[in-house]
Design goal:
Elements (H helix, E strand, L loop, with lengths): L1 H12 L3 H18 L2 H17 L3 H18 L1 H17 L3 H17 L3 H17 L3 H18 L2 H17 L3 H17 L3 H13 L1
Helix pairs in contact: 1-2, 1-3, 2-3, 3-4, 4-5, 5-6, 5-7, 6-7, 7-8, 7-9, 8-9, 9-10, 10-11
Length: 209
């Protein structure tokens, strides 16, 4: 099941929805044989991802919610990222209130289960959405907490990504010098980690400021 599931994700990601659909159907058959709630939830998430890659956002949201109906009680870790995925769909649709509601649920679960990496990730995601709705103070507060978590855990890539998000918030507030500083810190981390593909984002953001 896991191999078929992974291959289906790869097919959807590479822009081959027909093969993704074939592999998804195989995964469903295997899941039905296994009769595990976890594989059923995985199939829902896979279905949602397939629709997401084809920008069928309403269908993606529906299947992400179906997966969450299982993972809310079965797997707190999976539920955190399920709410994060759902929030991303709502953000793409411009429904920022629903996005923040989903992210708040993810934050609560991550905090309650002491999942620090997930906690930092969803805080970072929420800071972006708070920036979109003009709540910069709350956005920066969540961004600061995310930065602190990734500093402590040594997760350098997530730390750099958090600096990019923080820079965007500061830029939208008109704090251009601080924004450039955040982008430059992110770029220095990407450079140190030899992640040149990520440096393009930092350069682009610095050029916009």
């Amino acid at each position: 099941f896991d191999a078929t599931n992974s291959l289906a994700y790869l097919a959807y990601t590479s822009g081959n929805p027909i093969m993704g659909e074939i592999l998804y159907n195989r995964a469903v058959i295997l899941s039905n044989k296994l009769q595990y709630a976890s594989t059923k939830a995985n199939c829902y998430n896979l279905r949602a991802y397939g629709f997401r890659t084809q920008t069928k956002l309403d269908s993606a949201a529906f299947y992400y919610q179906m997966a969450l109906n299982i993972n809310d009680t079965l797997s707190p870790h999976s539920a955190i990222y399920g709410y994060d995925n759902l929030a991303s769909i709502h953000t793409s649709k411009g429904d920022f209130n629903s996005a923040l509601l989903a992210l708040t649920k993810a934050i609560d679960i991550a905090k309650r289960t002491n999942n620090q990496i997930a906690y930092g990730s969803v805080l970072g995601a929420s800071s972006f959405v708070y920036g979109l709705v003009g709540e910069f103070e709350q956005g920066l507060k969540n961004s600061d907490t995310a930065l602190s978590i990734f500093n402590k855990t040594g997760n350098t890539v997530r730390l750099a990504n958090a600096y990019i998000s923080r820079g965007t918030l500061l830029e939208n507030q008109g704090q251009y010098k601080e924004a450039i500083r955040s982008f430059m810190i992110a770029d220095s981390i990407y450079k140190e980690q030899k992640l040149n593909e990520y440096r393009t984002t930092a350069f682009t953001d610095m050029g916009v400021v």
